[in-house]
Amino acid sequence: CAGDDMSKSATGDWEVLSDMMRRFWINFGHKLNEEVEARGINSSQYTTLVALAAKGDCRMTELSDSLHVTMGAMTAIVDKLLRGGYVMRSRGTEDRRVVIVRIEPQGQQLVQEIDGKLTGLMLGVLGTVEASRRRAFVESYRMMVGSIEALEPPKVRASDLDPLIPMAPERP
Fold first, then answer.
1. How many Cα atoms occupy the beta-carbon half-sphere of 30 within 13 Å?
2. Is the CB of residue 142 less than 8 Å from the CB of residue 121?
3. How far is CA 43 from CA 28, 32, 133, in A?
4. Of the candidates 70, 162, 54, 43, which has an alpha carbon nearest to the alpha carbon of residue 103?
5. What is the pLDDT of residues 96-131, one digit of tens each?
6. Within 13 Å and on the Cβ side, how many CA atoms surround 62?
7. Measured between alpha carbons, how far apart are the two ends of the chain, in Å?
8. H helix or E strand, kind and range, residue 99
């Protein structure tokens, strides 16, 4: 049956792709951790800075929701970033219960430094791939991201956090 063959082929492709993606992200994660830890922060703090750099001023509840962490965890992350001079925290003017977090210039600079290192790493990796194959890979990945986001749009899209990631088409 042709449908069964296609299903088996897709399953095999997924198994290979899943393994490759897992191996890539484990290795990339190690490099990311090396970069952020060398600067005295952790990956959760870095991710928070990246979100603030992309979104601007943000309420603590929005920040914790978009990064899928509890308010308690977000408070601890922001406290450490505050002590490092990377963010500023303030109360809302209309509702004092609202806590607003803003990235400081030192936090922006840190994100740019780490992003520069990671971009250099990725350009080195991608530079080993022929241009036409690289474009085909990027287009395939864009299609997969668009397809998965179309199933159930996330609270924060990848393109919200990184302006270099093109947005997938909006769901109707």
1. 5
2. no
3. 12, 7, 31
4. 54
5. 889 999 999 999 999 999 999 999 998 998 889 999
6. 13
7. 35
8. strand 99-103
